[in-house]
Amino acid sequence: MTVVGVIGGGQLARMMIGPAIELGLELRVLAETDNSSARDRATSVGDYHDLETVMNFARDVDVVSFDHEHVPTDIVRELENAGIAVHPGSAALAVAQDKIVMRQRLTALGHPVPEWAVALSPDDVTEFLSTHGGRAVAKLPRGGYDGKGVAVISDPADVTAWLDAGPVLLEELVEFSRELAQLVARRPQGETAAWPVVETTQVNGVCAEVILPAPASETRVAADAAELGRAIAEGLGVTGVLAIELFETPDGRLLINELAMRPHNSGHVTIEGSVTSQFEQHLRAITDVPLGSTESRHPWAVMVNVFGAMDTKRYARMDSLSGVKVHNYGKDARAGRKVGHVTATGNDAAGTASRARAVAEIFSTDI
Amino acid sequence: MTVVGVIGGGQLARMMIGPAIELGLELRVLAETDNSSARDRATSVGDYHDLETVMNFARDVDVVSFDHEHVPTDIVRELENAGIAVHPGSAALAVAQDKIVMRQRLTALGHPVPEWAVALSPDDVTEFLSTHGGRAVAKLPRGGYDGKGVAVISDPADVTAWLDAGPVLLEELVEFSRELAQLVARRPQGETAAWPVVETTQVNGVCAEVILPAPASETRVAADAAELGRAIAEGLGVTGVLAIELFETPDGRLLINELAMRPHNSGHVTIEGSVTSQFEQHLRAITDVPLGSTESRHPWAVMVNVFGAMDTKRYARMDSLSGVKVHNYGKDARAGRKVGHVTATGNDAAGTASRARAVAEIFSTDI
């Protein structure tokens, strides 16, 4: 039996468990804590910054993959040097791990990105602000997620602490009409499969809703996004699932916001919405078997995140919403924490969205 | 977190693992062997005929359910006497455990069954044969499955050994036009949900293919089957999933062949075919939360069993069949063994069936 080792015990690893069982793969997880979201398959608990911990975990698996981008590149390279298959590999992963590297590589490949610069000093910030209408998005190159490590700034003083720690990425504040996400999977031998582009809604920098497919994207936008997704996956040599967060501008251009080289919140909607979910596809891609169909099962699928608490006692309130699927990440309650999501499918976008929101609302109150 | 304990570590328990994770339930399995199909959640390994083993397993769970019907009724009653929630309960389960009891109860409830009798002696067999055209179906009351413990007979000598062991159920050999299966779920508080009736094809007494919905069952047959399913679930007080194997006669009547009070091979097709799979629904029913929609996701879904071996290396041959979903039971190869299944979905019955068969064929050869 092929053994897949996932570093990181969050909900992404958790949601690989079911598909791994159906595919007949043995999934093992190196989790951060005893009570991780993926605890059912956490065969090891330890610090992924520690080379020995990671090597001990990886030694007996057939392929290593990730629940997040935070494993140090040096450790990923050590795994590769030891002859262990790692997907995505260190060269690709390095691009997702550092936003400055990502901007450099995407620019070198000729892909559309917001205007950007690297600031090493307050003067660099002042200069960028002066040529971009007095405002910019500042990003820490490493370690950010869900809006953390990202700030809209109008003064060099806003990033003094970040500059003290090292280079800061500055980007133009894009005037976008909406945000999209393109998911694509790629096998080591090169096969790629793109899902239809989705529309995402962020609240306070955190993904709140996703709709599959992105409304009014039947023609050019969808084709452009899919082509961009494949080109980036190939250009960077990504293996596994690649998620590309995009801005759509009022004049119809696509600009790349962020990359993630793993299943992604914008792809949870594929569990019910698509013939092949991002979790199954990631496992197929990293074990290098033919990819599954990315065709949609329904005209519309809408995912809504649940924050705070996911109390199974509240399932009792779902009587009239029997078609909405609930995904519980098995996490302790904490205000603002992503603890689950719900997905509705249907024949009309508005009705599908309102059913998903109604069930998410059941779980999102009273903590 | 609600803890569900399943007795039996076969593929039915295995296929509950994914849905349990998504629902945020903790699933524990009492498996027969270390290498059971459901080994990922086998928190105990032991003999379900041993009261102490079962009690130790069940003590800390919130609800007990089953992968098969073979747990002795006395042990199920002991669990109930100890205040443990068991679904289905001992009174319902007893009906599924003994085919004579089943015939008695269904007859008493007025449901349509083949003509039947209990034979205690060769003379009883001779008499039944003489009034039924010289042939009959003989069944061992307990312990049979997948065609084992069932025989078509024309002479009392065919069942001498069975009669030595105890009563034998005799049934008329029904002239049926096809076999159907009706699945229904029922909660302890009484809510029921029926899936559309499916058509099943048996080969040598073993389920080979299932099509959802049963072709040409749009009107009366489907309504009759669903009504029968609900009536039996209510009449017997079943909790969880109930599967009813049916004969459809050339004149359009339905006769009850067998009952199973758990997820069933005829319901695997609901994983992709239905908004709510039988495995998720069983978990919802036994934990007494509102049932999910049993609506179909696609016009047609066809499941084909895989026998013998399920070698993941053969996934490499699936290039042109990317929409067919593979389910691997993680079992060692053995000729004739159910080791997995595949399901295709689509807009036409014939094309969907042929795609499913083509993928099943990949795995069914060369052992």
List descriptors.
globular; Rossmann fold; alpha+beta; D-amino Acid Aminotransferase, Chain A, domain 1; homodimer; 18 strands; Dna Ligase, domain 1; 29% helix
Strand content of chain A: 25-35%
Secondary-structure element order of chain A, N to C: EHEEHEHEHHEHEEHEEEEEHEEHHEEEH
- The low-pLDDT segments of chain A are none
Helix count, DSSP H or I runs of 4 or more residues of chain A: 11
CATH topology-level fold name of the largest domain in chain A: D-amino Acid Aminotransferase, Chain A, domain 1
- Main sheet properties of chain A: 9 strands, antiparallel
Pairing-aware structural class of the strands and helices of chain A?
A: alpha+beta
Could you say how many structural domains of chain A there are in total?
A: 3
Q: Largest interface, by Cβ-Cβ below 8 angstroms: which chains and how many residues each?
A: A-B, 43 and 43 residues
| Residue-averaged pLDDT of chain A | 94
What top-tier CATH class of the largest domain in chain A fits best? Answer: Alpha Beta
CATH superfamily of the largest domain in chain A: ATP-grasp fold, B domain
Oligomer: homodimer
Q: N- to C-terminal separation of chain A?
A: 43 Å
Radius of gyration of chain A: 20 Å
Q: Tell me how many strands of chain A there are.
A: 18
Q: Helical amount among residues of chain A, as a percent range?
A: 25-40%
CATH architecture of the largest domain in chain A: 2-Layer Sandwich
Could you say which overall geometry of chain A the principal axes of the C-alpha atoms support? globular
